[in-house]
Amino acid sequence: MKLVHRLTPWLIPVAVFILALSVRLPKLGSFATADEPFWLESSRWFAAGLLIPDVECPPVKGGRPMPASGLGCTLQSAHPGVTTMWGGSLGVLAYYWQAVRPTGIDLSAFLQAPLSRNLDPVLVGWARLPGAVLAALFLAIFYILLRRLFSEAIALLAALLLVFHPVHLAYSRVLHHDALVTTFMLLSVLTMLGYWLKGRPRSWLIFSGVMAGLAFLSKAVAWLLLPYVAVVGIMSLFYREPRRGWPVRPWWSLLGEGVGWAVSAGFAFILFFPAMWVTPGRVLAVMYEQNFAMVDRGHEHYFLGAVSDDPGPLFYPLAWLWHTSPLEIIGLLVLLVMALRLFLWQKISRRPVELALLIFVVMLLLFETASGKKMARYFLPAFPVVAIFAAYGLLWLGRGLAGLVRQQQSRWLLPLLAGFIILAQGGLALTHFPYYLTYANPLFGGPPVAARLMTVGWGEGLEQAAAYLNTLPKAESLTVSSWYNDIFQAYFVGRETSFADDGRAQLAADYVVFYISQIQRQKPYPGLVDYFRSGRPVFVLRNEMWGISSSTTIVPNDNQVHWVEVYQAPAAQSANGDPEIEGVAQLLAYKITGPRVGDQDSAPLSRDDLAVTLFLRVLGPLPEDTTFGVALTDGDLWGHWTLTEVKGVWVQDNIIEWRGILSLPPEMPPGDHQLWAAFQFKEGPVIAEFAVSEKDPPLQIH
After folding, report:
1. Which segments within 285-383 are labelled E, that is strand?
2. In this predicted model, which residue has the larger pLDDT, 350 or 168?
3. How far is CA 114 from CA 84, 92, 119, 462, in A?
4. 160: which residues sit within 8 A by CB, 6+ positions away?
5. Interhelix angle for 315-323 vs 446-453, to 10°?
6. Strand partners, 613
7. Are the beta carbons of 573 and 550 closer than 8 angstroms?
8. Residues 6+ apart with CB under 8 A from 110
9. Per-residue pLDDT tens digits for 394-409
């Protein structure tokens, strides 16, 4: 009985841990997000730096700007993302021992070869596994700490709200640093508050410092803890001394505790960052310079119908509304109603932890809003705190409802509330499985409304587009241009080409894959997006109110949010050398078709009429008395051009198909010829020629 009594307090945290794992592990490697190829490669180099003393690693775009060797390779990013790379490298090594080592490949060779070219679901799953397990462990510790700081009821309800929160669920299942910095920041904050405001043992303060050091190793937002620890320390002076005015408690005692916290944080920062052992000056310089550069650059957003690099102060409040859950909204509304009782009817000194947590959220909001670079996920450290406040509201609501029934049923209140959260919050999250990133609060219209107001999508779903294209005949010979091409190429069996800024690669491809965040921001420019989207896609991935669905049966104007769209492309010849007529048009690509002498696609063209289409990007107005002429050239011009159709509207940046027939004369010599195209008067001389590059493949005429 004594053993059972001792084990009972641990049953709930173990259950929380198991519940968290049960929704974070299934189909863990089923897709990849936009940043994960980078973090996979960074984790590979991190492991190589740890295990191979003489390894040489190249500079990192957006991170370490110079080559490094050995432990210096553990500096990859300015974030610095060290905890991400610890987890990723453990997963990469586990993948090696399970799947690669039996093939006879040496570990050193494996770690020095690119990983992201083939995002094997097993590799992605292994790389994500340490982070998912750590997130589940955090939720169990989160419960334990809340039980010590508040009550059993608040701890259980807040933990369950976070276990099944779709947004925390989503980011704890990817190889990235937002969930990790949330974990370490919250553990540091809660234990800091426990020591200074609840009188917990000094080990809580040391633990808080260590967690702060790990948070600093995760992401730059964690440096918010430095001013925050000062705020909490000052609060502790006034809280510990009940009399008004300046406290009699010596300030140097607090200063000593602050120094102890900082030493613990610095110790953890150095201990778990091997690059600090060999090149500390370089590490700190890269972090300082690159982080400030990222803040100044901003990030292009679609927000409230407009595209900008800085969406302004409304961004985080509105993004939070669409990323919170209905249960949290209900709990917070009840909390607001009860606010007078909480803050006016009781002395504020009786709620110092709640006040400190509220200050944390406000400071985080101000910190993130001041930065030029804004992303909805950057506000993730506030979500556990919001869950605590929502738990208060739900508990009060439950007690109010319990008061309407018989008093003896009140002992069932906490189990009933816990069960309701599991069913309601968990059920809502699972409707978006495995793409929890596609979640948006249904109280505010869900994904369809969120997609009309803010940037959504992080690459999830592209693997389904690749899977569809892989089923097409001769998929291995198809060329596809896709947004987030580094993700798409890892799942596609054919040839991948870039998503070019001017559109040449897209026009030269067999298929083009569009993604929701690209469509929202009209990337690379509206004319190209409109050109393809004016047709009918051959495949779409829809995000509906209650989850994702794919289809090859396309309903025009279906009013659903298309997360991914696949279009058949012209498969034209890309025009090398950027040929353009200044102020009129740019020749992006051209397509010449006609009868061939032979069965192969590479057989020479016969002397019959050739169908020619010029794909032009409008740069300016086209005078009424001008046109574009086409011929073939081997030094002399051959062919008679007849314009048959102009497809598109001549408006700045639009893509125009200039179609016609080129009739070749009998006396034209056989052999290799190049396209010739020019801007000219309809009844007169040539004004300017397109400088068609000799690098374009020649046209063989029989």
Report:
1. 301-303, 306-308
2. 168
3. 18, 12, 11, 21
4. 16, 19, 418, 421, 422, 425
5. 160
6. 591, 659
7. no
8. 96, 100
9. 999 988 887 766 655 5
214, 272 in Cβ contact below 8 A? yes
Q: Which amino acid is at 608?
A: D
pLDDT band at 95; cut points 50, 70, 90:
very high
Note whether 385 and 331 are within 8 A (CB): no
| pLDDT of res. 241 | 41
Enumerate residues 6+ apart whose C-beta is below 8 A from 570.
Answer: 507, 508, 589, 591, 613, 615
Q: Give the single-character DSSP code of 454.
A: B
Whole-number Cα distances in Å, 403 to 156, 406, 407: 21, 7, 7
Alpha-carbon distance of 672 to 666, in angstroms, equals: 16
Question: What DSSP element (H or E) covers 655?
Answer: strand 655-663
pLDDT, one tens digit per residue, over 173-226 is 999 999 999 999 999 999 999 999 988 899 999 999 999 999 999 999 999 999
What are the pLDDT digits (tens) for 540-596? Answer: 998 776 666 766 666 555 567 899 999 999 999 888 877 888 899 999 999 988 776
Per DSSP, 224 falls in state G
Tokens of 470: 């892989």
Instruction: Answer whether 44's CB lies under 8 Å from 54's CB.
Output: no
Over the chain, what is the mean pLDDT? 88
Cα-flanking dihedrals φ and ψ of residue 661, to 5°?
-115, 130
Q: 3-class SS at 307?
A: strand
DSSP 18: H
Residue 103 has pLDDT above 50, yes or no: yes
Is the separation of the CB atoms in 658 and 632 below 8 Å? no
The H-assigned helical ranges of 150-250 are 152-163, 166-171, 178-198, 202-216, 225-240
As a whole number of angstroms, the distance between CA 185 and CA 27 comes to 28
**pLDDT-derived band at 669, boundaries 50, 70, 90:** confident
Q: Which of 227, 230, 221, 229 is nearest to 369 (CA)?
A: 221
Angle at 342 between CA 339 and CA 347, to 5 degrees: 135
Distance CA 699, CA 673 (A): 5
Residue 80: asked if its preceding bond is cis (omega within 30°), the reply is yes
Q: Give the integer Cα–Cα distance in Å for 194 and 202.
A: 10
DSSP tag of 664: P
Cα within 13 Å of Cα(277), Cβ side? 13
> The tokens 């570990």 sit on which residue?
107
How do beta strands 479-482 and 511-515 pair? parallel
Question: What is the share, in percent, of the chain residues with pLDDT greater than 90?
Answer: 63
Return the DSSP state at 250: -
With vertex at residue 331, the alpha carbon angle to CA 328 and CA 336, rounded to the nearest 5 degrees, is 120
φ and ψ at residue 53, rounded to 5 degrees: -60, -35
**pLDDT score at 295:** 67
